[in-house]
Amino acid sequence: MKKRRGPVGPVWLRCCLFAAASFCMGLAITIAMQWIFLGTLPVVLEWVLEYPAHLLMTALLWAVPVCVLGATLGRLWIAALPVGAAALALALVDYFKNAINGSPLELADFGLAGAAGNVAGLAGDLTPPEDFYQAAAALALCALMLLLTRRLTALEGTARARAWLCSLTLAGILLTGTGTRAVGGWLGVDFYTRMKPAENHSAHGLTLSLWRDAFPQPKTPPEGYDQDYMLEVLARVDQLTEARTEPEVRPNILFILSESFFDLTRLPVIRYGGDPLENFHALEAESVSGTFHSHYLGYGTGYLEIPLLYGLSGADLPPGTNICFQEPEVYERFDALAEQYTNSGDYTAEMLHAFDNSLYNCVVNYPLLGFQNLYFNLEIKEMDIDQPYYGGYYMRDGYLFQAMLNRLEAANAAGNRAFLFGITMENHQPFKPEKFNYQCQIPLIADDFTPAQRDYLRVMLEGITRADQALGWLTEALRQYPEPTIVVFFGDHRPNLFMPGGDTIYTLLGLSPENDTASWTAEQINDLFSTDYLIWANDPALLGDLAGTRKDSSITALGPQLLELTKQPVSRYWALLEKIPEASLTEGALYFLDSQGRPSLTREEAELSPEALELLELRDAVMYDAIYGKRYITEQMNLPPGA
């Protein structure tokens, strides 16, 4: 019988080699993940030389699970396989997210883990880059080396138990904020400074950027924060705002989030054989319209709905926090936009979504935001709608708009006004050439693109054309409707349009240097993070003298803009939000826009007046008090100004 070959060398040496091999595997995993993100090993080397502490900290974070699992199984090479595979999968998801919308994977995105299948299906065909396979081969080679040298790292009996206990203890230390920051401080890694996601990812790498988000950096309270300070804030809000009486006319409100809608005629080089936004452009003459500033590109619809309907943005929350997956009481601290209408007692608020209820926690959130009824695709299918259902892969916009008209009529017939929020899907990715059966109503002129790229462009063109035609149909129907009705129509973000060859339409057109937003200027972010909107009424008198005017808006300014237009009585909170556009149109994770739409990367870079700074500081104080603080005035912010 062949004798089993045992460990080689003294126990102390094998323990040292076991730890060293675990750390080397951690280094290999770190390099492989950066390889997938950065694309070439020379660029990875540049990152290593610039951020050696980040390399060591990340290697340690991956070495610990290799060590724990290796001590548990007694075979280090076996432990390296699942840990390496998990790292590769994480890096691939990060690569795909960057490809979809130019932003890295964040801890907040894990809130959608339960709907990963749906998310992947909505994104379309995602192909791993060649670097992924090369990195995977390199990790497999490292695991093979651990296999070949297994006798030098083999631990048995007491030594194995001690290695398991030590590695588990280190894992426990790193799983606490205090321990992580202590180890990070020793290595020179900053775990305190809040950073923008792209900057965080670029400097720290995927693993460390996620790890930093797992231990939220504290948001600095206003100087002198206490009850007296917040009462002064409350008094100042009352000085700057005033209560409104009930308006003479109370219109129905149809809020429509049009998926990936924007004025594509503003793109350079590409031309069209007709106007794909014929209806939208015609309606601008009788609407309030303009540029709509978003916080995302190609992705993140659910993360935009909360700022729009609640006034709270991701920048107000701790890093890594998913705005759609807060504790329920967070969404109840302020009355939401819909509740500014429903609190009067004669408005019914309903949400109609052209997809199912699996994404963004909307089944939980929307009732907390004041919506009495929710209708998803299955419920909408049950309505009496006599027209084709499918447009591409999803519900036709026209089908959804007919459902909204049905609910509008039902609310009015019951003696109520309607506040309806509709979310379309017909123009949602994936933009596969066969999506609309290769149909494109308007000729595309794009000679600088390959035939395969033109196929994708035609899908974008057809989707936006259909969205525009549905809008035209809806407004024509409302012209015949006897009750006063306002339509608020906007694109949530531009389509990502990830083209054959690995670039987006925007990089091919020279509008951005690369897919990753970390290298973009404030002007490039501002341009590509913008779409278009309009506010139209079936009775011109509802818009007063504003019909035909242009006014920039944003994901956080559109709700207050509507409230001001309809002269709706509001709470102190929304009265303050109505004032904020005088200082800033919006402030997202990537950029800041002042009141004139001038972009900068941060608020600090903008040249703001003392009055503008005061407004933003008031908002910061109110948000800090409600989200992080003692909620000294949160309840009072839900009362009318001066109450």
Describe the protein in words.
With 643 residues, this protein is α/β, with parallel strands linked by helices. 48% of the residues lie in helices and 10% in strands. It is built from 24 helices and 15 strands. The strands form 4 sheets. It has an 8-stranded mixed β-sheet, with helices on both faces. It has a 3-stranded antiparallel β-sheet with strand order 13-14-15. A hairpin with a 4-residue loop joins strand 13 (584-587) and strand 14. The N and C termini lie far apart (92 Å). The relative contact order is 0.13.
Which terms summarize this structure?
three-stranded antiparallel beta sheet, 643 residues, 24 helices, alpha/beta
Secondary-structure blueprint:
Blueprint: H1 11-38, H2 41-50, H3 52-73, H4 76-101, H5 116-123, H6 130-148, H7 150-153, H8 157-174, H9 177-187, H10 197-214, H11 227-240, E1 252-258, E2 271-272, H12 278-284, E3 288-293, H13 301-310, H14 337-342, E4 347-353, H15 362-368, E5 373-375, H16 377-381, E6 390-391, E7 394-395, H17 397-413, E8 417-423, E9 444-445, H18 451-479, E10 485-491, H19 505-508, H20 522-528, E11 530-537, E12 553-554, H21 558-566, H22 572-579, E13 584-587, E14 592-594, E15 599-600, H23 610-627, H24 634-637
Parallel strand pairs: 1-8, 1-10, 3-12, 4-5, 4-8
Antiparallel strand pairs: 2-9, 3-11, 6-7, 10-11, 13-14, 14-15
Helix pairs in contact: 1-3, 1-4, 1-6, 3-4, 3-8, 3-10, 4-6, 11-23, 12-18, 17-18, 21-22, 22-23
